[in-house]
Amino acid sequence: MSVTGSPDLSSSEARTPAARTPDPATPSTPASDVVVPEYVQPPDRSTLPLVFTAPRRGKPPVHWADLDPTQRRSAMEAAGHRAYRARQLSAHYFEGLRADPATWTDLPVAVRGELASTFMPPLLTPVRELTCDDGDTVKSLWKLHDGALVESVLMRYPDRVTMCVSSQAGCGMACPFCATGQGGLQRNMSTAEIVEQVVDGARKLAAGTLADAEAGRTPRVSNVVFMGMGEPLANYKAVSGALRQLTTPNPDGLGMSARGITVSTVGLVPRIHELATEGIPVTLALSLHAPDDELRDELVPVNTRWNVDEVVDAAWEYAKTTKRRVSIEYILIRDVNDQPQRAEQLAKVLRRRGTWGWVHVNLIPLNPTPGSRWTASRRRDEDEFVRRLQARGVPVTVRDTRGREIDGACGQLAAGSADIDAAETVPARRG
Ligand code: SF4
Fold first, then answer.
1. Which residues are catalytic?
2. Which residues, in sequence order, are CB contacts of 44 under 8 Å at separation 6+?
3. Are 291 and 342 in contact (CB under 8 A)?
């Protein structure tokens, strides 16, 4: 689920509505004046079909990050080496972030190259790398083994580093405001292709690529958000595998806290229930974008399969099972879903499920895709939307956006680079 180039949910930098100055030109309507929202026909309509099953394309080569520890030992033995070498190799990859076999000094020189080529085939070829926000944001465009293009974004904040990853090449969910959705679904990414994006971010940090780290401290990737290209829960097997690789302690995994990981979805209800039982209590971000079925059918076409009540119920169940607060993502689109009445309706929809502790609303100013007639809300409408939610006691923040000047909306970079020649690729980084 991609929305913008700034998908950090836990941001202490999220613009707090309370800090806003109310626009005096905006008349405030009492909360009791709830009226049924007038339906506004969205200016664009998606004509793309929903695609739940990814086209079958040549699978990427199997990588060390596709295997669990047991499979790694078996694979190592099958390759003619002692099983304990598996743990050594894992320590180099997950813990030391060392890609160059020359640095694997506890392994015999004669086998290092063979292990690298057998178990760590290159999966992501860098195509473009763009930096903004004074060097705190790095957006990468990758070419996969079959030529598909995907994006990832590394964002450094004062108190953490967030990596936004893609889970599919393209997307089959056809959201009409989204550049990725307009390109359709090319294929699912493998577990290792997802993990490699995070490992690359960690290597960039270790190499000091981002804006100056505090003296003597190497920052770590503390947060991973599945908000790049693709609908993560439509590629459930690979994504749940990646969640295991990210959260398994070193040296068999990256050792991240599940609390630092967010999986975003447009609302594939059966998969939300499945995710709740994985035993990996990541944060769920539900991209709602409209509180009523009529509008949500247009903005989020999967709503025709699982409607507002069903997806909000699933999110509530997820919060109850995992004890993790759910984030409701709501892109504000001018004159489409940003009316005061919709704020009131959103508050009602969420309140029906219980007290506010289970949920938080994250408002996202639309980052329009090129050529689209859809645009971000006026500031006064955004402020009024926030005020209405606050008046109903709904926890709400407005997301601080990152990367807008570098085709920040996810999918824009890939869409604008479909004809990239291999000659444009940048040198692979060794770490
Ligand atoms: S089309 Fe896919 S990537 Fe784009 S917003 Fe919808 S779910 Fe996310």
1. 151, 410
2. 176, 177, 372, 373, 374
3. yes
Question: Does any ligand 1 atom lie closer than 6 A to the CB of residue 2?
Answer: yes
Q: What 3-state class would DSSP assign to 188?
A: strand
CA 177 – ligand 1 centroid, Å: 9
8 A C-beta contact, residue 279 and residue 242: no
Higher pLDDT, 427 or 137: 137
CA distance 198 to 243: 11
The tokens describing 204, both together, are: 């960039």
> Taking the alpha carbons of 303, 307, 311, 314 in that order, is the dihedral positive or negative?
negative
Q: Which two tokens stand for residue 190?
A: 């493998």
**What spatial distance separates the first Cα and last Cα of the chain, rounded to whole Å?**
30
Q: Which atom of ligand 1 is nearest to the CA of 171?
A: 2
Pick 301 or 410 by higher pLDDT: 301
Cα gap 133→402, rounded to integer Å:
7
Indicate whether residue 231 lines ligand 1 (CB < 6 A).
yes
Q: Can you give the pTM of this predicted structure?
A: 0.85
How far apart are alpha carbons 210 and 135 in whole angstroms?
6
Across-strand partners of 108?
Answer: none
Give the whole-angstrom CA distance, residue 406 versus residue 87: 40
Enumerate domains of the chain plus CATH numbers.
17-21+40-58+123-424 (3.20.20.70), 64-119 (1.10.150.530)
State the DSSP code for 318. H
1 lines ligand 1 (CB under 6 A): yes
Please determine, for residue 31, whether its predicted confidence score (pLDDT) is greater than 90. no
State the Cα–Cα distance between residues 139 and 128, nearest whole angstrom.
Answer: 8
Give the highest mean pLDDT range of 14-28, 45-59, 230-244.
230-244
Query: Each residue of 328-383: pLDDT tens digit?
Result: 999 999 999 999 999 999 999 998 887 668 999 999 999 887 777 789 999 999 99
